[in-house]
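Internal tracking record. Fields below are filled automatically when a chain is submitted to the structure queue. Please do not edit lines marked as system-generated. If the sequence contains nonstandard residues, flag them in the REMARKS field before resubmitting.
Queue: standard
Priority: normal
Entity type: single polypeptide chain
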Amino acid sequence: MSKFIITSDTTCDLPKDFCKSNNIDIHPLYYRFGDNEVYGGDKDITPAEFYKRMRDGEMPTTMATNPEASREIFESRLREGYDIIHISFSSALSSSYQNTCVAASELNEEYPEHKITVIDSLCASMGEGLLVYKAVNFMNAGHSYEETVSYIEGLKLHISHQFTVDDLFHLHRGGRVSKATAIIGTIIGIKPLLHVDDEGRLIAIGKTRGRKKSLVSLVDKMAATMGSRDNDVIMISHGDSLEDAEFVASLIRERLNINNIIINTICPTIGSHSGPGTIALFFEADVR
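SYSTEM-GENERATED OUTPUT FOLLOWS
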């Protein structure tokens, strides 16, 4: 059986130590504030600094991973004798998937003795990360390359993403809500509830009044949809709002008796659009 690795990109939001210990290469996505220098990859700022700058009124712009960067990362592994399964950020939210496919297609021709498969996760943040996490465990259990690809494709539409944001104006800037909705919603304390649908798009599915109710609603949704799926691990990502993420984790432990919960910060690429205070919950469900 050929040796192979699983790779992903910045938006999977997995802890760095997990990626390092499991030989997961991360393809960078980029961002910048105004016309200033570009961040991402080896050149970055801390999440705390990134979200502070957003809270102070700076608005970042984002850039997808590029074929050249993906090619360089892929080729170094091909030269080491690995085949590669790459799990990419949702194609509905970024051109990263298409750009990575360009690099993979070129290298599959140049290295016919090896293979690269790029999978459109249709996921975001630690939803993508949860897919990577489970794929790595499946691979490490001794399954073949083809079995692992099939497993990922079969699992991805069972990864549920449940989001709430703290600032409606970030959704307005991204075209998700009107300016009037953002203003009125902010005044009366409306907190939107969103998810990622089967086409990998971020969609508003409801709203609550008040921050705490919005956090409880995430767990309500999980309890209602998880069914009999194997939720041996749950993931929560946050926009520099660790206390709220830990509150959601405590509800899950108390109500659903699930204790293996991984919490991490939302990367700048996604945080640029969701804003500080975002809380996102990821788990397996019968349907998204």
